[in-house]
Automatic annotation (TrEMBL):
Transmembrane segments: none annotated. Pfam families: PBP_like_2. Residues 161-273 form the PBP domain. SUPFAM superfamilies: Periplasmic binding protein-like II. This is Phosphate ABC transporter, periplasmic phosphate-binding protein.
Amino acid sequence: MFKKYLVALFVLFGLNSYLLAENIYPISREMGSGTRGAFVDIFDVKEQVGKKKIDATSKKAEVTNSTGVMITTVANSKNAIGYISLGSLNDSVKAVKIDGVAPSVENINNKTYTVFRPFNLAISSDNELVNDFLGYTSSNQAKSIIQKAGYIALYDNEFSSKKPSGKIIVAGSSSITPLMEKLKESYKSLNPKATIEIQQSDSTTGINSAIEKIADIAMVSREFKDSELKNGLKTQVLALDGLAVIVNKANPIDSLSKDSVKKIFTGDITTWEKVK
């Protein structure tokens, strides 16, 4: 009887009653994903094992292998929570505030929203076409594309293509891929002699492809590991990207603390009534 009374109160005040008891359904990215790596670092979803801190994402979390699948899964499950690139956010899901601050480019720029990561490039080839394309990605022409896509551009250089011919293979992060596709098409309008093949996978696969000389450029949506930087790859930051923590649009939760997000994904918080 008392629980029914509480449910009635929650409904009266516009809150969804499933928050009283239903389990949270956390969705994570796969191991090797740069988005997962950045999320785990930013929210400290880690545990100490010996001298190392390792990923402590709950084994009960469902694992998805792309940004698109993450969004679809959260959109179709009222109790789901996940995380995506801010630039990939659409209106099929809801991005929650973190410690009361909304995820936005403006709030990243004014340093009130601290949940962001670099979009890195690792370069294994040194030739005229690769250098011309990289010059374009840090140009004022690329800046407008990066900003329109919802990311933070770091450069505003003048650029004029030398129009070299050849082929580039770009491989890696599914979070960076949509932006790279836009940059590819814009660059090809300036240099139709270029062929650019983009292979979507994850950050770790991308950088391994660059190390093995299978790809000319790797897309890495997290910080580089020391072991990766020992392989002689050149690096460049393409842009900055916020991470958005997302829930189903029917979920009345509007804001979460960083600590609550961490505890949800480590499995320490399992029901919505316990979140802050």
